[in-house]
Amino acid sequence: MVESAYKSTLRDEVLGRSVHRFDYPCTICAMKNCNSCGKCCETAGNGGLSAAPEEIDWWETYRPEIARYVQDGRIWIDPKTGEYFADCPWLRYSPDNNKTTCDIYYDRPEDCRHYPVDIAQMVRHGCEMLEPRDFRDVELAQLKLDAIMIGSRPSVLKNK
Ligand code: SF4
Ligand code: SF4
């Protein structure tokens, strides 16, 4: 599939115009999936994340162990000091330090569920999903990202 046809197929999909889910046959063009390198989470300490009041209310009701690190709407706060944790307290490393997991993955903030939002953010964080070819056509790269994230957040393109 030539790149322009791939681009228009992706555009239809992220704009909800395609009837069937696109199954990414173009391995040459595809963006890599997240490899759990953890670089994005490593930047999320010290006030790098926010949560909506509804999320905080939900944690208070159903996950008080998460809510204990919320203070005055701010996440994640060390209850002993009242200051932001320097690093996200839910981030865990594999024994070889090559992979990470999130202790609250299924109840993590929307900020985390929507990540990565755009290519600039991925570049800032050194996200390992990016391939050198993604810099040739940033709009196409954004379409690929939106297609990967289709079950997790609204498309960036749709909101423009
Ligand atoms: S809450 Fe989970 S996903 Fe969000 S920054 Fe922390 S470890 Fe990463
Ligand atoms: S920086 Fe990118 S590849 Fe690494 S964990 Fe975050 S989303 Fe995944």
Characterize the structure shown:
Strands 1-2 form a two-stranded antiparallel sheet. The protein has a two-stranded antiparallel sheet with strand order 3-4. It has one domain. The longest helix has 12 residues, at 3-14. 18% of the residues are buried. It contains seven helices and four strands, in the order ααααββββααα. The model has no long low-confidence stretch (mean pLDDT 89). With 160 residues, it is mainly alpha-helical. The chain has helices at residues 3-14, 39-42, 53-62, 64-67, 110-113, 119-125, 138-148, and strands at 70-71, 74-75, 91-93, 100-102. The structure holds iron/sulfur cluster (2 copies). One iron/sulfur cluster is lined by residues 41, 44, 88, 90-91, 102, 104, 108, 112. One iron/sulfur cluster binds at residues 34-40, 116, 125, 127-129.
Task: State the gist of this model.
Helices cover 32% and strands 6% of the residues. It is mainly alpha-helical and 160 residues long.
The geometry reads as globular
Q: How helical, in percent, are the residues?
A: 25-40%
End-to-end CA span: 27 Å
Radius of gyration: 18 Å
The main pleated sheet reads as: 2 strands, antiparallel
**Structural class given helices, strands, pairing?**
mainly alpha
Named once each, the bound ligands are: iron/sulfur cluster
What fraction of the residues are assigned to beta strands by DSSP? Answer: 5-15%
Question: Order of strands side by side in the largest beta sheet?
Answer: 1-2
Number of domains: 1
Integer average pLDDT = 89
How are helices and strands ordered from N to C?
Answer: HHHHEEEEHHH
Question: In terms of per-residue confidence, which ranges show pLDDT below 50 for 5 or more consecutive residues?
Answer: none
**Continuous helix count:** 7
The number of E-state strands comes to 4
